[in-house]
């Protein structure tokens, strides 16, 4: 595996948890999958649809998201919203993420 491929693998692992947090935070305002996919990318969380949709289903099954179908338009869309449990989880994850970022900033950089 090349150095570039190795780096990309590690970056993907690092980002995986941040996408969960980003979804919970962004869906405090209801949204549908494709719109969320675009917004994640615009906000610095590039995500593949094959990753996002299973994640949304898992978070819903775990009770961190709720959903409802909007059939007002020609093409029905499933809208997601962060539940109260999801808001609490996002708060805890945000606090931990900030603590980790602070700890990383405090690491000795003399290598």
Automatic annotation (TrEMBL):
Extract the Pfam families matched here.
Answer: PadR
InterPro entries, per database record: Metal_resp_DNA-bind_regulator, Tscrpt_reg_PadR_N, WH-like_DNA-bd_sf, WH_DNA-bd_sf
- Transcription regulator PadR N-terminal domain residues: 26-87
Sequence intervals crossing the membrane: none
> Would you tell me the protein name for this molecule?
PadR family transcriptional regulator
Q: Which organism is it from?
A: Microbacterium jejuense
């Amino acid at each position: 595996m090349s150095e570039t491929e190795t780096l990309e693998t590690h970056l993907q692992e690092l980002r995986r948890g941040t996408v969960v947090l980003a979804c919970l935070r962004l869906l405090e305002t209801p949204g549908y999958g494709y719109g969320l996919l675009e917004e994640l990318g615009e906000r610095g969380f590039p995500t593949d649809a094959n990753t996002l949709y299973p994640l949304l289903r898992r978070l819903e099954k775990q009770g961190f998201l709720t959903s409802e179908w909007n059939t007002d338009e020609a093409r029905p869309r499933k809208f997601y919203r962060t539940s109260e449990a999801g808001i609490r989880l996002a708060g805890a994850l945000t606090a931990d993420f900030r603590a980790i970022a602070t700890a990383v900033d405090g690491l000795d950089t003399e290598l």
